[in-house]
Amino acid sequence: MSTAARPLFAFDDTFVRQLEGLYLAWQGAPAPDPRFLVLNRALAGELGLDADALDTPEGAAILAGATVPEGATPVAQAYAGHQFGGYSPRLGDGRALLLGELVDPDGRRRDLHLKGSGRTPFARGGDGRAAVGPMLREYVVSEAMHALEIPTTRSLAVVATGEDVVRETMLPGAVLARVAASHLRVGTFQYAARLGDPELVRRLADYAIARHHPHAAGAENPYLAFFASVVRAQAELVARWMLVGFVHGVMNTDNVTISGETIDYGPCAFMDAYDPATVFSSIDQAGRYAFGNQPPIMQWNLARLAEALVPLIDADQQAAVAAATEVLRSFQAHYGQAWGRGMAAKLGFVQPSDDDELANDLLALMHRGRVDHTAAFRALADLLRGDDAPARALFADGDGFDAWAERWRASLAAQDRDPAQAAEEMDRVNPVYVPRNHLVEEALAAATAGDLGPFEALVAVLQRPFAVRPGLERYAEAGPEEPGYRTFCGT
């Protein structure tokens, strides 16, 4: 007796069932020759998927958006957003689809989303397609962020479509299969609020609470507690970005998740030389989303969420605004605590140093000397082991660094920190390897030309960012300084 083949995916689409009005049913565009460029087999296993069954022409066609799998209801999600400070009332998935929701073996619900699968009714003049380079950039950077233990969307696969897309030149097309706790955004709430349907905003908030912040449901004011939970999650997320030198590049409200995950790796990059004014995005002409601006910009974005939630927080608008404002102000404290804890760990402390300016003075030295952010923190552990050469070689102001290092060692001694133990613990939080810009560009250029070797090698290195491995020295080195280096979103 024959047994029917097990479907590749078992979807349970609560977003579609519960939030009508916030999506449009849609299907991806045809793909002439879909084939995997990369399949994240480990992530497939985490999701409860059969990686071997997925790694087939059928699986490639599904993840390119060209074929709708059994049981799927693909939709383009609706959302609004402030883009570089300007409000756009109707954005939505212009070139993407929510294929469905998966429940992994641990009971976690995850979205499976396709980026670059063709134009939708939300498209705003673009072709709906994506090129190989930007999709592989999102793959490599999101997986690096995951390895750095920073909340993030994940990349399941990049599928070549078999057709070219028109950018400055003709480029090979591809689709990214992205996995997220959900794709609910601040912009989703802005869109629901704009529709003028208070019941839809309430349903959206109740759905977000149940899916991401269930503890808020039992609070005296669930919607205020929900807002407070999102504020805290995003404050802690941005602190983690700042601790590793990550520049998101496009912190629009439609790129701020309710779950607290990093999303949308378009014009993103990691700093080499430490400089709070660092901007990589080609479209961020005024530096709105510069590295040092990320915490206040996130607080600004969360104020837009508060505006959408005001009618739910209290029937008295004045009371609601006052309550939401008080919660919003807590962002700075949450951010400061998260950054302080993280910086203390990077410097080998169990708790923040009594020398309040120790970390900021180090950053000031790094800024003046354009010192490599990743290498500087990693070299401090060597100094504790008795080798000060790597750290001193980074700082042009040797006397200034020596004076700082003396204060640092005195502060560690005041906490009775054993230098060897502190160095070992620092190595667990200060990465050796991050997606350095020159390595990413090298890998993407080769992949666009048909050679995936450099990309695969880079991904393998970044999967273990804290462990020094012989033969990988070039992956730990800063590239040539490129004033004006810019990244692009790929649309």
What's the alpha carbon Rg, rounded to whole Å? Answer: 23 Å
As a percent range, the share of helical residues equals: 40-55%
Uncertain segments are none
Counting DSSP E segments of at least 2 residues, the number of strands comes to 11
Strand order of the largest sheet: 2-8-9-7-6
Class based on secondary structure composition and strand pairing: alpha+beta
Biggest sheet details: 5 strands, antiparallel
H/E series, N to C? HEEHHHEEEEEHEEHHHEEHHHHHHHHH
Q: Given the structure, what is the number of helices?
A: 17
Distance between the termini: 51 Å
Strand content: 5-15%
Shape: globular
Mean pLDDT, all residues: 95
Outline the structure in words.
By secondary structure, the chain is an alpha+beta fold. Among the domains are: 14-180, no CATH class; 186-345. It has helices at residues 14-18, 41-46, 51-54, 57-63, 132-147, 186-194, 198-212, 222-244, 294-313, 317-346, 358-369, 373-384, 389-394, 398-414, 419-426, 437-448, 453-462; strands at residues 23-25, 35-39, 75-77, 81-83, 86-88, 96-103, 109-115, 154-166, 170-180, 246-247, 269-270. A five-stranded antiparallel beta sheet has the order 2-8-9-7-6, sandwiched between helices. Helix 5 (132-147) packs parallel to helix 17 (453-462). The relative contact order is 0.11.
